[in-house]
Description:
Layout: E1 3-4, E2 10-11, E3 18-19, E4 23-25, H1 30-42, E5 47-48, E6 65-67, E7 75-79, E8 84-88, H2 93-102, E9 105-106, H3 118-123, E10 140-146, E11 152-156, H4 161-167, E12 176-183, E13 185-186, E14 189-198, H5 199-204, H6 206-212, E15 215-220, E16 226-235, H7 244-268, H8 273-283, E17 287-292, H9 293-297, E18 305-313, H10 317-330, E19 339-344, E20 359-367, H11 373-384, E21 389-390, H12 400-403, H13 410-420, H14 429-435
Amino acid sequence: MARVGRQGDWVNWAGDQRCRPVRILVPRSRAELAEMVGAAAADGGKVKVPGSGHSFTEVAMTAATMLRLDALRGVLDADRESGLVRVGAGTVLRDLNEELAARGLALENLGDIDAQTVAGAISTGTHGTGAGLGNISARVEGMELVLADGSVRELSAAAEPELLRAARIGLGALGAISAVTIRCVPSFTLRRVDSAHRLADVLDRFDELAERNDHFELFTFPYSDRALVLERNRTAEAPRPKGRAVAFLNDVVLENWALGALAATGRAMPRAIPGLARVAGLAATGTVNQDRSDRIFVNRRTVRFTEMEYAVPRADGPTALRRVIEWVRANEFPVFFPIEVRVAAGDDADLSAAHERDTAYIAVHQYRGMEWRPYFEAVEAIMNDYGGRPHWGKRHFQTAATLAPRYPRWAEFRRARDELDPARTFTNPYAARVLGP
């Protein structure tokens, strides 16, 4: 989670994005939020509202006014019959999951991190995996948006569907989200089976694995010929959570301490990385876990890294992944962290990376303190060949000019931005680069 430093610096989770706002304000209510936004805009200033700082880009950074929504959190209203839940924008997903579970509800799909705020997660297009499931924003039915003049705009799927399609993934560039209405589902249990396979076999069966599982993903180290396949499926059986000792061994010792130790070794001795990767690939063994859905979705992450993730047509996912691995090996580039591949259904949000196409997400990572730019530039060049769209919260080098042709509703988003934030109060250098002036 991002933090406010001793000198008032704002620093993201990875520790590689830092800014010093003129002021960091924490409104205690929607009324205070509106007052603060209006006052900053009246003085001609810019405003940014960060989430928890789990993005790897400059999406939330500003040298002007930063408004943190720590106090605007919690479930504000919930209808178990319809599944509609109205929640404060500053609610952290981890806390939301607990509040929903207490009401017999759950989010339909989640990523493997639960440290983001609701507003931050939907604004950047955060997603989980599942061939028949969209990202978190695809379940948004309404949004409360504070505009630059301090007014509050209620967007709903029924009354203003066009504006909501823009605002569901708005990069914080349309206004300050104060509350979100999400369609949830009854609580459910997931059974997770992890198994190791030859990477070539997994890629040959990619579509089969995606279609037969509610939630499918794979991890592979670029210098290993093995892949760890994660299959999560609903079950009518009761949860059988891991004991504390087993959970500590798997989630802390193996997935974090061991990974961190191997990555640090690779940073100190880059020539050892191929061997370390092969060892790590062989060490990935099968496990089975069955628990409440959010506890199965989410993994603990303590090892710091930076990340790029691209969305390509699902049919191109295996080929794109093979090309990334070929580049790493051909260039003997020192990267130890695994590549992650997930799938998602197409959706209709204007700036969704999965807009109107079934999607494979390919995420590459680099351990903190290691050179990442040549690797990420090469990956982006490969993804460009497939019309790749970047995850808005992860590193990329695109501009508005290169991105516009990839989004069929780019012009509609621009019109929504002109209507909701004509003076560009909610812009920053990142938004100007990727969305235009």
